[in-house]
Amino acid sequence: MSDQPAEVSADELHAASEQAASWDDAVSRATRGETVAVIAAGKHVADVVSSAELARLRETIEVLSDSDAVRALADTEAVLVGREAIRSLVAERGE
Questions:
Q1: Three state DSSP letters for 24-79
Q2: Which residues 6+ apart lie within 8 Å of 48 measured at CB?
Q3: What confidence score (pLDDT) does residue 8 get?
Q4: 27 near 33, Cβ under 8 Å?
Q5: Are 25 and 35 in contact (CB under 8 A)?
Q6: Rounded to two decimals, what is the model's pTM?
Q7: Which of 54, 13, 60 is nearest to 36 (CA)?
Q8: 56, 52, 57, 49: which is closest to 26 by C-alpha?
Q9: What confidence category does residue 3 fall into, taking pLDDT thresholds of 50, 70 and 90?
């Protein structure tokens, strides 16, 4: 262990404070449902999202990774579209 205390400049402390405020803002915005881009060295390297959004995305990936589930969704979509078409025809004839 060094006997010398670590040196930190006022500029470094100010920069760290600004970074902490930026992260607090990113977390607050993500909590409100926004996706916040993280830019490092001029490149988009990550996104900050809420835990709920991350869970939704993971569930979507899980479902889309299951070919049987995707087939079932496709079959359901055709039924829903068919139902709407029938409802439209019935509504048109009732007018």
A1: HHHHHHHHCCCCEEEEECCEEEEEECCHHHHHHHHHHHHHHCCHHHHHHHHHHHHH
A2: 26, 27, 29, 30, 35, 36, 38
A3: 61
A4: no
A5: no
A6: 0.55
A7: 54
A8: 49
A9: low
